[in-house]
Amino acid sequence: HAFDRWPLDSCFRMVLETWLSYIQPWRYTDFSSRTQLEAQHSDTDLNKRVDGRWDNFVEDNLLFFTVLTSEFIPRIYRMDLTSPYSAYMVYRVSRVGGR
Fold it and tell me: Alpha-carbon Rg of the chain, whole angstroms?
C-alpha cells in the first residue's frame, strides 16, 4: 500500500530503506566473520554473493522481492529523478538487483 500511495517526495526513502533492510538481512549479521579486506570492499564489489544459508529466507519471502520491486518500477516514472534523493533511491534498489 505504501509503495502505491506514499507521496512522491524524499520521505518515501523511509519506506524504501525499511523494505531494503527486510529483504537483505544478511547485511546486518555476521560482522565478526567477515575479513577486514572483505569489509573494506563490500560496497564496491558488485560480484559479491550472498551466503547460501539465506536461500530459504529468499524463497520464503520471494513476494517481498518480486512484487514490491514491480510496484516500485512504475513509481520511478512518477518521481522527479533530477532530485538527488529520488535518484539515490533508484540507485539503492538497483544495487539490490545487481547482487
Answer: 15
What letter represents residue 92's amino acid? R
42-91 pLDDT per residue, tens: 555 545 678 889 999 999 999 999 999 999 999 999 988 898 988 998 99
Residue 38, Cβ density class (10 Å: 0-12 exposed, 13-18 middle, ≥19 buried) = exposed
Q: Which long-range contacts (CB under 8 A, 24 or more apart) does 77-83 make?
A: 78/8, 79/8, 80/8, 83/10
Cα–Cα distance measured from residue 11 to residue 55, given in angstroms and rounded to the nearest whole number: 31
Residue 7: count other Cβ atoms within 10 Å of its Cβ: 7
What pLDDT, on a 0 to 100 scale, did the predictor assign at position 21?
A: 93
Grid cell listed for 29: 549479521
Give the span between the Cα atoms of 74 and 90, in whole angstroms.
12
